[in-house]
Design brief:
By secondary structure, the chain is mainly alpha-helical. The chain is built from 20 helices and four strands. Strand 1 and strand 2 form a beta hairpin.
C-alpha cells in the first residue's frame, strides 16, 4: 500500500488506456515526436538540417533519459528546457537544431491538444458502445407498459423501452457534440513566442510562405488537417472549455439516467447487476444497493463542477499568455477525461446486465390504471345511453372512495369493481377489463422506439461496427 495520496480515478475507476494517455511518459514522448516533426519540416523547407540529425533524434524518440531531465530541471526550474537538454545529451549531432525557433508552448500546447484528441476518440468509442447496449435494451422492452412519472407522481403510461430512448436521446446529443469537436479540432501549430511567428520568419529569411507552409506541414506530420489560424503564445483556452463542456454534458446525461435507475431500483422495477458475492451493506445483509449507479452520479458531479475551471481560466488569461492556467489545467483536464471514462465504463457494465421485473411493473401499472381508464370507461357508458354529467359525478365519487381505500386503509384499488357494480354505467366486469388493457394507454411508444433507433442510432452503430462489443470488467 502507498504511504502517500493516490488519485482514486487512477487506482479505482478509470481504464488503464485512459490513464496512459494522460501519463508523463505519453507527454514526453509526444514532445520528442513534435521536435522531430519540426526538424523534418524545417529541413524540407530548406533549413540546414541533415538526415543524420533527424535519424539520431528518431533513434531516441521513445528512449527518454528521465534521470538526466529530472536532474536538469532541479537546476533550471524549466521542464521543457530540461527535456531539450536531455534529448541533446542523447543526440549530440542533433543538439543544435532541437526545438529550433520554437517556444515551450510548441510542445506543451500541441501535446495537450494531441492527448485531448486521442482522449475524445476513446470516449467516443465507449459512448457508442453504451448507445448500442442502450438501444438493445430499448428495443427489447419497447412494448412493456410502465407507469410514466411527472414530478415522480404516476402519470400516463409509457413503456420501459420508450423511457430508455429518453436516456438515449441525451447521449445522442452528446455524441453529436463530440463528433463536431473531433471534426473541428485544430493543432496549435508553429506560432513562436507570442504567436507572431517572428522567429521562424527570421529562420526562413523573411519568406512568409515558407513560414505558413511550416505550420501546415508540422500539423500534417502529427495527423492534423489544420491549425489555429491565430494564437498568442498559447492556443485559446476556449478549446479546453469546449472539450470539457462535452465531457460535462456526458456526465449530466449519465447522472440523469442513473438517478432514474436508482429510483426504479427502489420501486423494485429495474435492478442493476448484482453479483453472487457482492455485499450491499456491512450491517444489513439483505440489501441490494444500486452502487454502480450511485458511483456514476458521484463521479458525474465531479465532472459537472469541474467545468468551472476552464471557464475561469479562459476569462482570466492576460494578453498573449499568463502562467496561472498551468497548474489548474494539469489537474482539471486529465481528471475530466478520467472521470468520464470511468462513468461510461460503469454505464456499459450496468446495461450489460440490467434486470427488469415485469410482474412488479405490471402490478404498479394495474394499481394506477383504473384511475387513468375512467375517461374511456365514461365514454363507453355514454355510448350505452348514459348521461355524461351523471357518470362523471359517479366516477368522481367512486374514485375518491377507492383512493381512500388505498391510502387510508392500505387495501387494493377497487375502483373497477365499484364501477362494475354500479348499474348507472351498464358495463359488465368483462367490458371494463377490456377497457383497462395497458396496451391501450401507451400511445405510439413502441413505434417511437423503433423509429428513433432505426433512424438515429442504428446508422451510428453500423458506421462504427468495428468498435462494437466492448466488455467492461470493473476494478471494484
Amino acid at each position: 500500500m502507498s504511504s502517500t495520496y493516490e488519485n482514486p480515478l487512477i487506482t479505482r475507476y478509470a481504464s488503464q488506456e485512459m490513464a496512459q494517455l494522460f501519463s508523463a511518459d505519453m507527454k514526453f514522448k509526444t514532445w520528442r515526436k513534435l521536435w522531430i516533426a519540426l526538424a523534418e519540416a524545417e529541413k524540407e523547407l530548406g533549413l540546414d538540417i541533415s538526415d543524420e540529425q533527424i535519424e539520431e533524434m528518431k533513434k531516441y524518440q521513445d528512449d527518454i533519459n528521465y534521470d538526466v531531465a529530472k536532474k536538469r530541471e532541479k537546476e533550471t526550474r524549466h521542464d521543457v528546457m530540461s527535456h531539450v537538454y536531455a534529448f541533446g545529451v542523447q543526440c549530440p549531432a542533433a543538439k543544435p537544431i532541437i526545438h529550433l525557433g520554437a517556444t515551450s508552448a510548441y510542445v506543451g500546447d500541441n501535446t495537450d491538444i494531441i492527448v485531448m484528441d486521442q482522449g475524445l476518440k476513446l470516449i467516443r468509442k465507449k459512448l457508442i458502445n453504451l448507445m448500442n447496449n442502450m438501444s438493445a435494451f430499448a428495443l427489447e422492452y419497447k412494448d412493456l407498459p410502465t407507469l410514466g412519472f411527472t414530478h415522480f407522481q404516476p402519470a400516463q403510461l409509457t413503456t420501459v423501452g420508450k423511457r430508455g430512448t429518453l436516456w438515449l436521446m441525451d447521449f445522442l446529443m452528446d455524441y453529436e457534440d463530440l463528433e463536431y469537436a473531433l471534426s473541428t479540432i485544430s493543432l496549435r501549430g508553429v506560432k513562436g513566442t507570442t504567436g507572431t511567428q517572428a522567429s521562424f520568419l527570421s529562420l526562413f529569411d523573411e519568406d512568409h510562405q515558407k513560414v505558413k507552409d511550416l505550420d501546415k506541414l508540422v500539423a500534417e506530420k502529427m495527423g492534423f488537417k489544420k491549425t489555429f489560424p491565430v494564437t498568442g503564445q498559447t492556443y485559446s483556452r476556449k478549446l479546453d472549455y469546449r472539450i470539457l463542456s462535452i465531457l460535462s454534458s456526458i456526465a449530466q446525461s449519465a447522472h440523469k439516467m442513473t438517478n432514474d435507475l436508482r429510483l426504479l431500483q427502489h420501486l423494485k422495477e429495474i435492478e442493476e447487476p448484482f453479483e453472487t458475492n457482492q455485499i450491499g451493506s456491512s450491517a444489513m445483509a439483505y440489501k441490494r444497493n444500486p452502487m454502480r449507479s450511485e458511483r456514476v452520479a458521484s463521479l458525474a458531479r465531479h465532472v459537472i463542477a469541474n467545468i468551472m475551471n476552464p471557464a475561469m481560466t479562459v476569462s482570466t488569461q492576460w494578453f498573449e499568455r499568463t502562467l496561472d492556467d498551468s497548474a489548474n489545467r494539469r489537474i482539471s483536464i486529465p481528471e475530466a477525461f478520467l472521470a468520464v471514462d470511468a462513468i461510461l465504463e460503469i454505464c456499459i457494465n450496468i446495461f450489460s446486465g440490467l434486470v427488469v421485473y415485469e410482474k412488479v411493473i405490471n402490478q404498479h401499472v394495474m394499481n394506477e390504471l383504473p384511475f387513468m381508464a375512467t375517461e374511456n370507461i365514461m365514454m363507453e357508458a355514454v355510448k350505452r345511453g348514459g348521461d355524461r354529467q351523471e357518470l362523471h359525478e359517479k366516477i368522481r365519487t367512486h374514485s375518491m372512495e377507492a383512493a381512500k381505500q388505498v391510502k387510508m386503509e392500505g387495501k387494493s384499488n377497487d375502483l373497477l369493481v365499484r364501477i362494475a357494480e354500479d348499474d348507472t354505467f351498464k358495463l359488465t366486469k368483462d367490458h371494463i377489463d377490456n377497457l383497462v388493457d395497458p396496451i391501450l394507454y401507451i400511445g405510439r411508444s413502441p413505434q417511437q422506439v423503433m423509429e428513433f433507433i432505426e433512424e438515429h442510432i442504428q446508422p451510428i452503430i453500423e458506421k462504427n461496427k468495428e468498435i462494437i462489443g466492448l466488455e467492461i470488467d470493473l476494478k471494484v
